[in-house]
Design goal:
The complex is a heterodimer. Chain A is of the alpha+beta class. Chain A is 20% helix and 20% strand. Chain B is 83% helix and 0% strand. In chain B, helix 3 packs antiparallel against helix 4 and helix 9 runs antiparallel to helix 10. The chains are: A alpha+beta, B mainly alpha.
Chain lengths: 331, 199
């Protein structure tokens, strides 16, 4: 009987088919949960493939908004290193020479107020507050490889803007050829500065054209948040095609000069750490090979180390800066 | 206490204690608790335990004499072999996890890093000691020659401390090497003193 009327009575559903009242009343929540579950499933497979999966910090530090950079080379597809590793395995000798020292000791670093002194051969020298510096360029997210001179590497999503934006604003004079970076050396808050591992303060330098290269980053954050102290808060340099020690942390002074600055590591061991310190698999450190590297968090115990790339893989972007130079001599 | 030191239980307890660091490392490896650079953690931990083992082995005789506990002698071979075991693991972690068993790379690496050369030398010197650690070897070599051979452990200890000191020299980080150096110096100079005082 296909057509039913009240005359033929009402077919009752079997009790097993009746939706319990509580479930009926929470059907919206159920639908939401199902949708989330499906999204979660697709997300998890997406996360495994997508480089952006590990791009956010745990949300302890303030967020720092940025747009993805479109500077060529600034969006490597390598998988970003886990935040825990990037913030727990650091070289920041001002807080100790063990790689777990910075995460343990850097909490004493006082990052507010913070000023950076711009001096030397510029039209607009001065002492600039961090808040102002943060407005001098549009914040971009850049995913860079980081190769430590010790033979390990990471992939870090930085937040900042091209150092060139700052340089253009302070207007270097015609005879400025190099930029020197001086970082904080505060005996009270930095236990390593009381020890004699290096001559403090830490000094680094770049040729002006290297400093002006769009890939040279003035970083204020990483993983979508402001820089953790152990990673060089509140602002640092990031030069992705050079060994990590060139990327000076916690900057307090940017000086424009006409002579090549002597960086701290060159001062400590000239034959081991040259001014350029470009990542170069063909030029060994006097005490170890630079041909390979271990990617932290990815190259497991049994994995072979990966081959180090010329200029850390940024050769298409920066190779021309060194055209005609003997890189064995200018290490 | 001295009676207990003579028991088999004491020997097994010493072995179990000596294997604890290994168990702890294995657990951390399996549980992925070795930190950002597992290979480095394993190399350093096994190196640390080799040095500690050397110091403990070298401490047996002074402690035995100074405290008058001859029973301690039973544990010297065990400690020595445990030390050798950690040295083997240390070498294995370096050649395997750090260098991926790339022998040309390893041969290239040894002269580049003098501290690796020193460590390799110390290990090479450990081999004959481990090989002659059984009773039959003592009999065959004769006690005098056996003892003369096993005195090379003094050189091994010095090389091991130098290896560690040199490895840390790159960062001017001499805190720990100084501690191991001081302990080794005390243990060795006590022997020199005895030789001079009671020829």
């Amino acid at each position: 009987m296909l057509i039913r009327s009240s005359d033929t009575g009402f077919d009752h559903a079997a009790t097993s088919e009746i939706t319990p009242r509580t479930v009926f009343e929470s059907r919206r929540t159920l639908l939401q949960q199902m949708a989330l579950g499906a999204a979660g499933l697709s997300l998890s497979s997406w996360a495994a493939r997508d480089a952006r999966a590990q791009m956010r910090g745990p949300g302890v530090l303030p967020a720092l908004a940025a747009v993805p950079s479109n500077v060529p080379g600034a969006q490597t597809m390598d998988k970003p290193t886990a935040y825990k590793d990037a913030t727990g395995y650091n070289n920041f000798y001002e807080f100790g020479t063990d790689k777990s020292d910075p995460a343990r000791h850097a909490h004493t670093l006082k990052t507010t107020p913070w000023t950076v002194e711009v001096e030397g051969l510029v039209k607009k020298p001065g002492r600039y507050a961090l808040e102002d510096l943060m407005k001098w360029g549009a914040m971009e997210e850049r995913i860079y490889r980081l190769r430590c001179v010790e033979g390990w590497s990471m992939v870090i999503p930085w937040v900042g803007y091209s150092l060139a934006d700052l340089i253009k604003r302070v207007e270097p004079l015609g005879h400025a050829k190099f930029v020197e970076f001086v970082t904080l050396a505060d005996e009270k808050t930095m236990p390593g500065v009381r020890g004699g591992a290096l001559d403090w303060p830490y000094v680094e330098g770049l040729r002006l054209d290297e400093a002006m290269h769009p890939l040279t980053l003035l970083a204020f954050g990483m993983y979508g948040e402001v820089l953790p102290r152990q990673n060089g808060a509140p602002l640092r340099l990031v030069v992705p095609w050079k060994y990590g020690f060139k990327s000076a942390k916690s900057l307090v002074k940017i000086r424009f000069v006409d002579k090549q600055p002597t960086s701290s590591w060159t001062k400590a061991a000239q034959q081991e750490y040259g001014f350029y310190s470009n990542v170069n698999p063909n030029v060994d450190h006097p005490r170890w090979s630079q041909a390979t590297e271990r990617r932290i968090g990815e190259d497991g115990l049994l994995a072979k180390k990966r081959k180090t790339l010329m200029f850390n893989g940024y050769e298409p972007q920066v190779g021309q800066l060194y055209a005609g130079m003997d890189l064995k001599k200018n290490y | 206490m001295r009676g207990w030191l003579r028991t088999r239980t004491a020997w097994w307890a010493c072995l179990a204690l000596g294997l604890l660091p290994l168990a702890w490392l294995l657990w951390r490896t399996l549980a992925d608790q070795l930190g950002a650079n597992p290979a480095e953690t394993l190399i350093r931990a096994t190196g640390d335990w080799t040095l500690r083992g050397l110091c403990l082995t070298l401490a047996i005789t002074p402690v035995r004499v100074l405290l008058g506990v001859p029973e301690l002698l039973r544990f010297r071979r065990l400690l020595g072999l445990l030390t050798f075991g950690y040295a083997c693991l240390h070498l294995l972690c370096y050649t395997g996890f750090d260098m991926g068993f790339e022998w040309p790379d390893i041969v290239h690496d040894i002269p580049k890093r003098p501290f690796v050369l020193v460590g390799t030398l110390a290990f090479a010197l450990l081999l004959p000691l481990a090989a002659t650690s059984w009773n039959g070897a003592i009999r065959r070599l004769g006690p005098q020659r056996w003892q003369a051979l096993h005195r090379s452990v003094y050189a091994i200890a010095v090389l091991a401390v130098l290896h560690f000191w040199w490895m840390r020299a790159g960062k001017h980080n001499f805190g720990e090497p100084t501690i191991y150096g001081a302990i080794t110096a005390i243990l060795l100079s006590w022997r020199l003193y005895r030789r001079w005082r009671y020829p």
